[in-house]
């Protein structure tokens, strides 16, 4: 059995930042990357809003930079997926890939959250080439262009309103005959001249060529088909936190996000602001897996830093 002082589960901005800080603190962190080393940012073709990259950077390059920086200070990075964890006693019993056993004195969970997609083959084809799940991340690239957003809740409306400050025309594709967003958000959307709401419409196919997205074929519930000429297609139907193995082990909110005792979740409680401590002593959570509000690379990295400090403090008190 492998004995680890600080186990980090996940390899996005939160996981690698936590690794950098814990390694520098002498905690000999071990990172297991998950099935997608670097996380969902590796599917992003260009990141323009992360400090330190004035010319922008691809997600895969940035994640490689963070990994090399973590390894520079002695972090061990292994490819593998944590498939089981027992949080009932310390050291924690962890299993990787169904067979490799680890005994961990502390754990930082940085497994992230994945955007919900419609499941269209054409959608997968154009991810990073016009299909995006983050308007704040990618909206800048569509200034003065036409785009579409799918969804009818607060997330979709927020995406549409943000894009309307940049884009010429925003189509909001809503499956139902009404918006599920708050009344205030609904009013803001309906009053915005740049937003056209297509109620009772579903997306049949995303159209494109070698250069990326060129349009979307939508169909009304009455069977009327329409082609939208757009350059960007944004998903606003929420995210899915990667917390399957933590159900029944850690306290989660109603959407499956890990509740930290000083986090951004609605059930976070009155713990010190910014604390990454979870419901189990010795386990900390950082990044999108515990953040249902911001979900940005920079906020995930900041949370990774906090988790490292919280973990170091915890171990020093044992």
Name a few traits of the molecule.
318 residues, 27% strand, elongated, alpha/beta, five-stranded parallel β-sheet, 2 domains, FAD/NAD(P)-binding domain
Q: Per the principal axes of the C-alpha atoms, what is the gross shape?
A: elongated
What is the CATH architecture term of the largest domain?
3-Layer(bba) Sandwich
* Biggest pleated-sheet summary: 7 strands, mixed
Report the span from N to C terminus. Answer: 22 Å
Strand content: 25-35%
How much helix, percentage-wise, in residues?
A: 10-25%
The overall pLDDT, averaged over residues, is 92
Whole-number total of structural domains: 2
Helix/strand order: EHEHEEEEEHEHEHEHEEEEEEEH
Structural class: alpha/beta
- The CATH topology of the largest domain is given as FAD/NAD(P)-binding domain
CATH class of the largest domain: Alpha Beta
Strand tally, please? 17
Report the CATH superfamily of the largest domain: FAD/NAD(P)-binding domain
Count of runs of 4 or more consecutive helical residues: 7
**What radius of gyration results from the CA coordinates?**
21 Å
What's the short story on this structure?
With about 325 residues, the chain is of the alpha/beta class. The chain folds into two domains: about 1-115 and about 240-315, FAD/NAD(P)-binding domain (3-Layer(bba) Sandwich), CATH 3.50.50.60; about 115-235, FAD/NAD(P)-binding domain, CATH 3.50.50.60. The protein is about 25% helix and about 25% strand.
Outline the structure in words.
Strand 13 (212-220) and strand 14 (225-229) form a beta hairpin. The strands form 4 sheets. Strands 1, 2, 3, 4, 5, 6 and 17 form a 7-stranded mixed sheet that branches. This protein has a 5-stranded parallel sheet with strand order 8-15-9-10-11. A 3-stranded antiparallel sheet has the order 12-13-14. With 318 residues, the protein is an alpha/beta fold. Helix 1 (13-24) packs parallel to helix 2 (59-72), helix 1 (13-24) packs parallel to helix 7 and helix 5 runs parallel beside helix 6. Residues 265-271 have low confidence and may be disordered. The protein has 2 domains: 2-114 and 239-316, FAD/NAD(P)-binding domain (3-Layer(bba) Sandwich); 117-235, FAD/NAD(P)-binding domain (3-Layer(bba) Sandwich). The protein contains 7 helices and 17 strands.
């Amino acid at each position: 059995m492998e004995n680890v002082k600080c186990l980090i589960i996940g390899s996005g901005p939160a996981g690698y930042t936590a690794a950098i800080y814990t390694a520098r603190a002498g905690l000999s962190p071990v990172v297991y990357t998950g099935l997608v080393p670097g996380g969902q940012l590796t599917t992003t073709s260009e990141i323009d809003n992360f400090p330190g990259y004035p010319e922008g950077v691809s997600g895969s390059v940035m994640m490689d930079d963070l990994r090399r920086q973590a390894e520079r200070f002695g972090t061990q990075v292994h490819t593998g997926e944590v498939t089981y964890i027992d949080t009932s006693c310390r050291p924690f019993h962890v299993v990787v890939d169904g067979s490799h056993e680890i005994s961990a004195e502390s754990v930082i969970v940085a497994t992230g959250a994945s955007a919900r997609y419609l499941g269209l083959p054409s959608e997968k084809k154009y991810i990073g080439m016009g299909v995006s799940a983050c308007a704040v991340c990618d909206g800048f690239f569509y200034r003065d262009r036409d785009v579409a957003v799918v969804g009818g809740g607060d997330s979709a409306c927020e995406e549409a309103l943000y894009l309307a400050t940049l884009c010429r025309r925003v189509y909001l594709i809503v499956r139902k005959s009404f918006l599920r967003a708050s009344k205030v958000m609904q009013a803001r959307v309906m009053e915005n001249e740049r937003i056209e709401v297509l109620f009772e419409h579903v997306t049949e196919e995303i159209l494109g060529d070698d250069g990326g997205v060129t349009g979307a074929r939508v169909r009304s519930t009455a069977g009327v088909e329409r082609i939208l000429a757009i350059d960007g297609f944004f998903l606003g139907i929420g995210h899915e936190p990667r917390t399957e193995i933590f159900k029944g082990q850690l306290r989660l909110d109603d959407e499956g996000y890990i509740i930290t005792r000083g986090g951004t979740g609605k059930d976070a409680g009155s713990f010190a602001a910014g604390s990454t401590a979870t419901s189990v002593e010795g386990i900390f959570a950082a990044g999108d897996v515990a953040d249902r509000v911001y979900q940005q690379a920079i906020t995930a990295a900041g949370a990774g830093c906090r988790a490292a400090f919280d973990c170091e403090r915890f171990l020093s008190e044992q």
